[in-house]
């Protein structure tokens, strides 16, 4: 099957795969329940074996074959390029598996972050990587405007707290302000592209709605994303069905719009909203009464607040 050097190289690859993924791959059959598959290496075809039979074993064999077929350093690509491909979902779970094994990264549940600094992208990426030292978390510049981070599960610090930590570090160390989006947790690294897409959506939605704060979770905008996926014509129909008078007047008035948004973000709490807007309690009540006169919606009532929130989403989406 080739030289001893080639045999040793293949054996080392198999050992690496076993150590990092727990999948045992071997060149010799054991006569047990096992699945055989062919691998092309350096112009030669060899037969390898993995434990088990059936669909799951065949899928594992295909992943291993794909990884081994792409181990040639001349075609391997750089680490950042490989990670970007995984985050963008270009190669699916096979590329994710290959990245894990090639760069000795342990698999596990993870969350993706999308970071958009307002300046100094290179320095910002270097600082983010410094923040990740000593962990198995990953960071990569995606293009000339944004940085992606993959953070594996940490029970001691929530994803939102970690996002705030990154924002604070960038601001205090570099004077950089960033918009940071957080995706939902992916059960494994092979699913991280979905989480990254959600993180990028959170950044976009935060800018669209001019939301307070710099760190936003995709969960905040799940309703927005659901409505965004509805055809524009149907959105107009839904807006009309609410039969709320003069709603456009509120969204066209910066003061009323900002008051309503702050009140909703503060969970309909008068005192907290007053502090956030730096206005007297009576001034806030006057503005809320004005919104009620214009729209007929009393934002202090939960049901009316929900209706207003949906209308705000529909209005912004229709304006895009």
Task: Describe this protein's structure.
This protein is an alpha+beta fold and 320 residues long. The chain folds into three domains: 4-76, no CATH class; 106-224, Alpha-Beta Plaits; 230-318, Orthogonal Bundle (Arc Repressor Mutant, subunit A), CATH 1.10.10.2840. It has helices spanning 4-21, 55-69, 73-76, 79-87, 92-102, 121-131, 159-174, 192-208, 222-228, 232-242, 247-251, 254-265, 270-277, 281-295, 302-318, and strands at 25-26, 34-41, 44-51, 110-117, 138-141, 147-152, 178-182, 215-217. The protein has a five-stranded mixed β-sheet with strand order 5-6-4-7-8, with helices on both faces. A hairpin with a 2-residue loop joins β2 and β3 (44-51). It is elongated, with a radius of gyration of 26 Å. The model is unreliable at 72-76 (pLDDT under 50).
Which helices and strands appear, and what pairs or packs with what?
Blueprint: H1 4-21, E1 25-26, E2 34-41, E3 44-51, H2 55-69, H3 73-76, H4 79-87, H5 92-102, E4 110-117, H6 121-131, E5 138-141, E6 147-152, H7 159-174, E7 178-182, H8 192-208, E8 215-217, H9 222-228, H10 232-242, H11 247-251, H12 254-265, H13 270-277, H14 281-295, H15 302-318
Parallel strand pairs: 7-8
Antiparallel strand pairs: 1-3, 2-3, 4-6, 4-7, 5-6
